Amino acid sequence: MTKALLDTTRIMEMIPHRYPFLLIDRVIEVDPNERAVSLKNVTINENFFQGHFPGAPVMPGVLIIEAMAQTAAALVVHSAGKELEGKLVYFMAIDEAKFRKPVVPGDQLIIEVVKVQNRRNVWRFKGEAKVDGALCAEAIVTAMIMDK
């Protein structure tokens, strides 16, 4: 395992997501071609909290899964090098998604993805999202990497 620090600027060089849809702030660990850990500082300033839910803000589960997919995409590009930078990652499947605990403003979401399978440009990852060590969400995500 390599301790790696991929900051927001580097992540934006690697994957095409931008505010308000860039959902990871930093990649903090990478085991190339195998696993990565990222973090998302969840703040009340997130635009989705305006409507989800007024008076009781909760990060939407689908956005937690999107953060898993972005972590996986950063892992794939970091492992492959510049040849994949800027390519698009398309969701193909989300399986076995479970939401265990709400994620709220002030939380630091830690997202870990582990490669399950890779065939050519199709990747499958098991993802977990935790706050203070407590499992908040998990899913298996499958994505395809393609040219723009």
What do you see in this structure?
- With 148 residues, the protein is an alpha+beta fold.
- Helix content is 18%, strand content 41%.
- It has 2 helices and 6 strands; from the N terminus they run H-E-E-H-E-E-E-E.
- It has helices spanning 8-14, 61-80, and strands at residues 26-31, 35-41, 88-99, 108-119, 122-131, 134-146.
- It has a 6-stranded antiparallel β-sheet with strand order 1-2-4-5-6-3, with helices on one face.
- The N and C termini lie far apart (31 Å).
Main beta sheet, described?
6 strands, antiparallel
Which term fits the overall shape? globular
Total number of β-strand segments? 6
Q: Whole-Å distance between the termini?
A: 31 Å
CATH architecture title: Roll
CATH topology: Thiol Ester Dehydrase, Chain A
Strand order of the largest sheet: 1-2-4-5-6-3
Average pLDDT figure:
92
- Supply the number of helical segments: 2
Corresponding CATH superfamily:
Hotdog Thioesterase
User: How many separate structural domains?
Assistant: 1
Order of helices and strands: HEEHEEEE
Percentage beta strand? 35-45%
Structural class: alpha+beta
Low-pLDDT residue spans: none
- Helix content estimate: 10-25%
Report the C-alpha radius of gyration, rounded: 14 Å
CATH class category name: Alpha Beta
Fill in the keyword field for this structure.
148 residues, alpha+beta, Thiol Ester Dehydrase, Chain A, 6 strands, 18% helix
